[in-house]
Amino acid sequence: MAEQKKIFHGWWIVLVAFLSVAITYGTKGVFGVVQLQMLDDLHWTRASIAGAMSANMLVYAVAAPFVGRFMDKIGIRTVLIAGALLTGISFLLVTTVTQTWQFYLYYGVLLGLANTGMGMIPGPTAVNRWFVKKRGRALSIALVASPGGMAVFTFLAKDLLKTIGWQGMFMVMGIASLVVVIIPAYFLMRSSPEEMGLLPDGDSQPAAAVNTGTPAPVAANEMEWTLTKLFTSPMAWCLFFAYFIMGGNGWAQQVHQVPHLIKMGLSKDAATVALGMNMVLAVLSMLIWPTISDFMKRSTAVVISLSIQAIGTVLLLNATDITMTYAFVFIMGISHYGSYGLFSAFAADTFGRKSLGTVSGAMAMVGAAGAAIGIYAGGAIYDATGSYQLLWQLAIAGLLIGVAVVLILGQMKSRQEVAAKLNA
User: Fold this and answer.
1) pLDDT at res. 283
2) Are 296 and 213 in contact (CB under 8 A)?
3) 172 and 47 in contact (C-beta within 8 Å)?
4) Given this model, what pLDDT does residue 217 score?
5) Which residues contact 296 (CB under 8 A, 6 or more apart)?
6) How many C-beta atoms surround the C-beta of residue 27 within 10 A?
7) CA angle, corner 348, sides to 347 and 351, nearest 5?
8) Nearest alpha carbon to residue 90 among 108, 106, 112
């Protein structure tokens, strides 16, 4: 009887990444629900609560590139366990807060730092190292945990807040971070298949090329990328600009689309339902786009996705009735969220597997900066002009420029691969 083929360990890596992303973004997404009970109990201002979230994002943005670089040096498992441990401790400390400075310290600073060791840096980095030919498909499974985690924790909060309160909810999130992430990470996480004597995708021999249009890593593609090299690379700046615009527009829409739609004449209920439908479509987007990119050039998939997002933003700009609104919701919802997996895979294709922690950390910083600027710009533009029209016009222009720079990056990458083959 033939020996049963074992499951490729890379799929266990996907499981660990899924769990870490689910906990990170599930707990972050439920904050909007939990804060309401905190406001009632502690009698703080909304600005003080929002300020802690802003501090969290700022600390994350500053720390991300350095944590990513550190991860390349000491390994993904160590960083992931440390991130989960600090996340759990931060949530447990939040249960004791009575003053706003404590909340800023525990939720803003400690949790902001902890999130760099969880979520979108270690998990996707590990998946990108374990897969090449099936990179998009593996990432789609890992990253769908983001909207999935938000849905699960929001559902839990609905009932748990009534019985155990906000302190109990933070305690649940802390324990979940410690148990759900640390134990699987300790036993299953490895930084690369080479650590276990394996090859990416479970292949028995190195692949010279991938017939899906996504080439396997070549020698020139496996150079070590320090932060200095990365931030002086034209290829990196093309990638960063497109990622910055994509993230900034997405977050700007998440925060400002409801008031924009109300300003355009929709009811509050209709505008809110439209936002909720975006989150439902996010799950499909996360599954579809990274998977599709395994069967074409990754740069082509990114260009198509950004182009569709530009069309969706045009629809939002002109959404004066429910038909136009739902057309926007469908097109933007099905195209935006999956772009995070697309860009993660595209970065791995472009810069190789060796320094992926450094690359992922830098991208996380750029994405957080885009989110912060997009959210702030929306408020500032509305205050100055009385509408969001200019915001969406700038976003459309940025997305189209992003399409152009991705095409340029694709050309630079193709020339690099040809040169590498000639020198081999």
Assistant:
1) 86
2) yes
3) no
4) 41
5) 212, 213
6) 26
7) 80
8) 106
Give per-residue burial for 79-114: e unless 16+ CB within 10 Å, then b.
bbbbbbbbbbbbbbbbbebeebeebbbbbbbbbbbb
Assigned token pair, 325: 């609104």
Region of 224 please: left (phi>0), alpha (psi -120 to 50) or beta: beta
- The pLDDT value recorded for residue 4 is 53
Q: How far is CA 275 from the centre of its chain?
A: 19
Q: What is the CB-side half-sphere exposure of residue 293 using CA atoms within 13 A?
A: 35
Best CA proximity match to 24, nearest among 100, 95, 87 = 87
Q: How far is CA 31 from CA 39, 107, 145, 157, 171, in A?
A: 12, 11, 17, 10, 13
Hunting for tokens 């926007």 — which residue is that?
Answer: 328
Which of 362, 70, 101 lies closest to 236, judged by CA?
362
Structure tokens at 42: 């502690």
Q: Which two tokens stand for residue 108?
A: 């803003």
Residues in the chain: 424
List, run by run, the mean pLDDT of 10-residue segments along the chain (424 residues). 71 97 89 84 84 86 94 95 97 95 95 92 95 95 90 83 93 95 96 93 65 40 83 95 95 85 85 76 90 93 96 94 90 92 94 92 92 87 92 97 96 81 69
Whole-angstrom Cα Rg for the chain: 21
Structure tokens at 145: 């945990």
Give the tokens for residue 223. Answer: 């150079």
- 388 vs 300: CA distance, rounded Å: 30
Q: 75: which DSSP letter?
A: -
**Burial class (CB within 10 angstroms; exposed 0-12, middle 13-18, buried 19+) of 163:** exposed
pLDDT of amino acid 270: 81
Q: Which residues, including other chains, have CB under 8 Å from residue 153's CB and lie 6 or more apart?
A: 26, 27, 29, 30, 173
| Six-digit token string for 20 | 């870490």
pLDDT score for 123 = 94
Alpha carbon distances (Å) from 163 to 23, 30, 82, 156: 21, 16, 31, 11
Distance CA 309, CA 311 (A): 5
- Identify the structural domains of the chain with CATH numbers, from first to last: 10-199 (1.20.1250.20), 233-423 (1.20.1250.20)
**What is the distance between the terminal CA atoms of the chain, rounded to a whole angstrom?**
43
pLDDT of 3 reads 47
